[in-house]
Amino acid sequence: MKVSVSTISIAELDVDLLFVPVTIENIDAGLAELTAAFGGAIDRAKNDIRGDGSAAIVLYPDMGTAKRIVLVGLGESSKVTLEKLRLAAAKAASVSYDVKAETVGIAIPSLDVNGDDTAQALVEGFVLGSYRFDRYRTGLLTGEAAQRLVIQTTDHDKQVRRGADRGRIIAEAVCTARDLVNLSPDEKTPTLLSKAIEKSGKKHGYEVSVWDKALIEEEGMGGLLAVNRGSLEPPTFSVLEWHPENSRNSRPVILVGKGVVFDTGGLSLKPTKDSMDSMKSDMAGAAAVIGAIEAIAKLDLPLYVIGLIPATDNRPGENAYVPGDVVKMHSGKTVEVLNTDAEGRMILADALSYASSFYPEIVIDLATLTGAAVIALGDFIAAVMTNAEKGAEERLADIMQAGAESGDRVHNLPMFDEYNEQIKSTIADLKNVGGRGAGSITAAKFLEHFVDYPWIHVDIAGPSFIAQAKGYSQAGATGFGVRLLTRFLQQMSEKKR
Predict the structure, then answer these.
(1) In this predicted model, what pLDDT tens digit does every residue of 43-97 receive, in sequence order?
(2) Of 270, 328, 333, 470, which one is the catalytic site residue?
(3) Residue 158 included in any domain
(4) Do 148 and 197 sit in the same domain of this protein?
């Protein structure tokens, strides 16, 4: 979607649909201005505007150049958040999709929010709300996304342009992640996923190296190799690197994404309904890392960032690993496998261990790791945990701030040492499951045994893939994590100025 900024008056903006967000304080003055520009249809709609943003009012103006007007009430201006702006813009996107509007305008409202942040949120909400995954549909579609979005403003032109461009870049990166997760499993085998990463790197200007099975064996990634034993497809390990000349950090930030391209549960087979049937999404962590690297490369963020993606599927065929196996991991530690469906932590542990070789400043992993996270927090927020390394409270505060500002919200869970008791093995260093209680935490405690640096773990099992459309996300992949990581890295970059 092409996004531009215009200072043309609202009455002269020639678009198929014009979206005007309205605050309670601005109803009289704002609608009077619109009535003068577009006629009495605006004034007649005044009493239908709700302050909670729950309804979009579509009008056909008596005059002016815009063919349709969409009004959405934002409520009190002091209570308008960036997320409210995204959600309001998503409503306009839904209307534009239904009426097949090719060109859409958004009028920047007058708010106590920076013009660039407002523009970014509106563009993000509109682009994400316009997303549809139609790759496998045949025949006529019910609608189509707008081709051009125009942000209309009367002042702060440079700020608005900067925010609009940033919003487009980040939203497009989220859509990349959504596309990858929504793909049919046969189109994203570990090899095909690695090829998609290489293609992305060439397009967006970051470096990619892909390890084949021989290199993975040479590196001793026993966890990744164990999970892959049941598959006909070999594993891959992809290293994504963004290292600009003006980077503000000498030691890299490392992003690790779980890349289980399909998870049957292995020999600990999952039930199909409401479980295995959505397991093409088990590589959503990997997709989020790919999207985030794309975003920071396009934004030219001055940080040295590395992405690590271990990829395999988890199947019960071939010589599949079994409960009772003891696996020697990349770090040298041994793990007793008691459930082959706890495979994500096995491949992440190897990647986290390998990350040590870069002497990272901080490592963040994203993974659809546990159903327990969904039970605890639902499908609109992710669980976040960190180790007790120096600065733990600051790390949690930073990632939660990034979540609140980006819309990819996270909430912290405890990491007390007592939880280690649940993953002690009688025959190995660790066992790969800790029982029913505190499942998200014991999974994180397992991973903690493979890190020796500041580390943040984000369990995105709930919000990464949803059964019903919500806000600016259609049913299916949400791209959760791209905006979280991008905002966190932006914050980090700003602190290093």
Answers:
(1) 888 778 776 666 788 999 989 899 999 998 888 888 889 999 999 999 999 999 9
(2) 270
(3) no
(4) no
Which is nearest to 308 in space by CA: 358, 266, 250? 358
168 among known catalytic residues: no
- Residues 6+ away with beta carbon under 8 Å from 181: 280, 281, 283, 284, 287, 464, 465, 476, 477, 479
How confident is the prediction for the chain on average, in pLDDT?
94
Q: How far apart are the first and last CA of the chain?
A: 32
Give the CATH number, domain containing residue 230.
Answer: 3.40.630.10
Query: Are 201 and 105 found together in one domain?
Result: no
Written as six digits, the tokens of 329 are: 């991991």
104 and 187 share a domain? Answer: no
Residue percentage of the chain with pLDDT more than 70: 98
The yes-or-no answer on residue 270 being catalytic is yes
- 69: tokens are 């007007």
One domain for residues 248 and 341: yes
Q: For position 197, what pLDDT does the model report?
A: 98
**Which domain, by its residues, includes 365?**
175-495
Query: What is the Cα 451 distance to its own chain's centre?
Result: 24
Does 255 share its domain with 191?
Answer: yes
Q: Which of 345, 395, 409, 487 is catalytic?
A: 345
Residue 243 half-sphere exposure toward CB, CA atoms < 13 A:
11
CB 456 within 8 A of CB 384: yes
Is residue 341 a contact partner of residue 266, using CB atoms and an 8 Å limit?
yes
